[in-house]
Amino acid sequence: MVVCASFACLAQVSFASQQYAQDSAPYLWMIACVLVAIPSGLILLARNSYPQAVFWTACLLVVALPYDSLIALMALTSLLARRQGTKVTLRSVLAAATTTIWSQVRDALHPAEASIWHAIFSKPYTGVRYGNTMVMLVDERTIIASAVVVALIAVAIATLAGLHIRSRALARVAEAKAQSANEQVSRLRTTLDNQQLADAIAAEAHDTLAHSLSLLALNASALQAESRKLKAEAEQLGNANVAGMAGKIAGTTEDIRRQASGALDEAHSVIDMLRHPEDARLQLAANDAEASLTRDSLLQLIGDARAANMRIDTWIDVQQLGQLDESIGVIAYHVVQEGLTNVRRHAPGAPVSLQVDANPPQGVHVHVSNPTIPQSSSHMADTRKGAGLPGLAKRIQQAGGTCQYGFDQHNVFHLDVRLPWVG
Prior knowledge:
Layout: H1 2-16, H2 25-40, H3 51-64, H4 70-82, H5 86-108, H6 116-120, H7 140-237, H8 240-275, H9 277-290, H10 295-307, E1 312-318, H11 326-346, E2 352-359, E3 363-371, H12 377-385, H13 389-398, E4 402-407, E5 412-419
Parallel strand pairs: 1-2
Antiparallel strand pairs: 2-3, 3-5, 4-5
């Protein structure tokens, strides 16, 4: 396009210069127009970013200088392809038609030796180059009319080409929007199916899990009552061993009842999350936003645990927590929370050792440990495998940290987590 536009402008300037003497001022003007015509097509390179500016500049060049209108027609096609609107279309087509007609009629009005149109309608082998006078095959009116008709046809072709390119672009946009809408429908259908599945799981959990936990809490209460009754009868009979064993059973059943009640509350909470996923997302997002490792949040966790009758020995050495990466702070908070929650669930009454070290050079180190009953350590290990530690460990590894947990040879459960200062 650049080459064709520059060549068309250069050709018409070359013909127009034939009517002037070489030592005249108009001939020097023609030389200047030739120099401008050579790079004139380069303005089309900016047609994508500035189609209107390129079009009006091309029209100005054609009107002000003896250039061919091809450059303006190319700019018209680019403008119509990239800009919509009835006003823009009509204004640009009218301007292009006026410019093209002016360019072609101007050439047709030049003397025969300086006109491309006269060269087209001249008799072969006539003219100055052949050493004789140019003989025309048609009259001047036919030449001018032909120039006007060709100009209008050229404008129509340029207009239709631009509108065709625009329609194809609009069709591609419409197709992309339709594809996006279909993908959105597919996602909504998948979301609906997932929600229906979540509702079915919630209903099944409510009918089975919640019912089973309720029965467990009820049976534990009944067993506790019977154990207390047995303890009272044994004390009346003076059997201290039986009374002591009955007291231990009553205490254990009380722990079972409390754990079953807590599990039932958590089950109802999970069921509500399944039934209302949007509320669950907001709640979890809010929890993550509020749960970050700070001095206040750490003291709050420890205070809540002690208020629940947990015996906690702490070693806290934290520095510059205000500079801790926010995502790392959230994970560290959940580590401490999960460690204390696991002790409360799986080893109620056991003393807890909590160590938290945090500083920029070493990162964050959290260690939670608690002794367990030797006979039940294997059962507690199986129980903890189903808890939140595996998910927490995966989250820690994704953040670039390490997570280790398990029992030592003394049946002490350890949770050891190390996190980088920056995620």
